[in-house]
Every structure is written in C-alpha cells, then in structure tokens.
Task: structure prediction
Amino acid sequence: MTSFGALLVTFAMNYQMIAIGLFFLGFGGNPTITVHYSFINEHSQGNFREVQNVGVQVFFAIGEFAIIALAYFITYWRWLAVSVAIPSILLNIGNLLIFESPQFLYTKNKKKCVKILNQIAKLNGTQYIKIDDLATNPQTKENNSRVYSILDLLKYKSLRYVFFAGVMMFFAIKVTYYGISFVSDQLGLNFFTTNFIIAFFELLAFATLDFFITKLKRKTNIISGFFIVGFMSLYFLFQSDHIVFRIFEGILAGLMRFLICAVWALGYIYVSELFPSVVRSLALCLISAGGSFGSIAQAFLSNLCSSLNVHPMVAFGIICVLCALLLFPLRETLHQPLREKIEEDQTRIRSSMLHINDSEQITSPLHDT
Result:
C-alpha cells in the first residue's frame, strides 16, 4: 500500500490523486512501522531484542536526514516523489527474505511453523524439530489456541489501566514529535536549517540510546524525559525577534526532539515488556494506533494555540507532564522476566490445579480402602 501510494503521488495529475496517494502512504506506512516492532518482539529475545528495537529507529532518523537533504537539492516535487517511491518498492523485495514469525504461525499452520523453525535452525546450525515437538507442552498449546482482541485488554483488570496509560503515553509522544516538525517554521530559522538541527538531535537520541538501552530503567527515564520536555517548553512562553533568542529556540526544539525520541524508543520496549506474551503484539499495535491520534491532534492544537497567542511548544510540554503522571502506578520492567500469561488467567489456572490436587488427595485414601 505504501508503494502504491508513493507511485500514485509520483504520477499524480491533480490534487485529488495526490491526496489519495498520501492516504495510502500513511495507511500503509504507519502500521508497517508498528508491525515491525511486533515482528522483532516475536523473533528476538534478551538484550538483542532491546538493541534491535532501538536500532530500527536509528535508521528511521537516517531516513529523515535523507529526505531533508533530498528536498533541499531536489526542488521539483515530482522528482522528490520519485526518490521516495524507489526505496519503498525495493523494500517489498527485501521483506520476501525475512522469515514469518514462528509464534504467529503456531496459531495458524503448525506445518509452516515447523518449516520456518527448521529453516532458522539450518542457518543457526542447530537441531531440527518435528511437528510432534510443538504439541509436547499442553499449556503452550492452550495459550496459542485462543485469539485475543481489544476487549480482552479492557476486560482484564491487570491490563486495563496499563493499556490506557500506554495509549496516553504514545499520544503525548506523537503530539510532541510531530508537533515540533509542524511548528518548525515558527522557530525563527529557515525551514531546512531548523529541520536539520531537529533531525540531528533525533539521530543522536536513537544512536545514543542503542548503546545504553540494556541498562536504562524504562519507567523512570520515560517519566523524567516527559518532565524535562515540559520544563523546556516554558522557554517558549517568552517571545523575541533577537537572533540569539531565535537560535536558542531552534536548539531547545532539537533538545526536546532528542528527549521525545528517547522516550519513544523506550516506550516501544516498555510496552512490549509490560504486557504478557499472549497479548503483547496486539497491545503494541493498538497502543501505537491509539497514540496516532496525537499526530492528528497536534495540527488542531497548533491552530488553537495560535488563536490564543500561545506558542504550541508550551501546550506540547503541558501534555507531556500530564501524561507522565499517569505512568507512576505502572511497574518497572528492566531486568524483569517477560510474563507469558495474563495475571487473572494465571491465578485461575493455579487455583484449578490446586483444586485438582486437593481432590486427588481426598479420593486417594478412598481408593486405598
């Protein structure tokens, strides 16, 4: 869909075709980004999962640098659209080389699951498995046979607030992230200079975080990042046309982008660690989708701030602080084992097993007599 949208924009003959093409670019591209994180969480384990999650975003920032540079040198919009369409088409070929998630295939087609696992085993030089090996754990079979939905995230008490707080966290991230880009022309410097500064801080954030992600506390650093962004936004309460003031606006916008990108990278990992395996991918996709309302709201928020003669950066900072407060009840997940089951289900199964054991103990003496 992304490639189709890119091609439609490239060969557009009117504004309507451009609008439809941009729709497909967003409709296909944004879910693809989120599904990649679910894909990584299902494929990778341990520290490599954390490093890989942030590593993807390093290249996201490099791509942002690339599009700003291309826009600077390619002034004709159609050729710029071509430069976007080419890599999106080539990526379709690259995705054919990636193995489907065995965890997903286990719920759909066990023969394909075994085939993929053995292809991975061949590359890793490990032992092959047979289809019977997948059914040796009845508990695992029970977990994967059920299909979860958003209703389960709202039904279970242990998931409900975590889901709500996660959506609001991503809302604050995206309203600030996209809002900074949206108001970049109000920061006093020219468009390209401002966006190069912002892109540089974004790349620096992801690259730095990738080195320390295995040691950083998730909850503490996300909350701290939100509060610092809120504090920095107070600078934009003041207004001046002095060149030094304007330069500091650009630098502060870059630093805010640095922090919000670090929070974003930590947020993806934090969400994947908060939820049990049976709903992890579902929760990650829905939270990211819910947070996308922030990317829509920032445009309306910016217009509202302009009508009130308040800089939009101030509003972004306030939202970050308010959403940070919602994260305090959540648990820290650094160096904690990933949960496999929903807490209520785990308690129910444990109670059932205790009941069975008690029944066996009661009936055993009767059999003896």
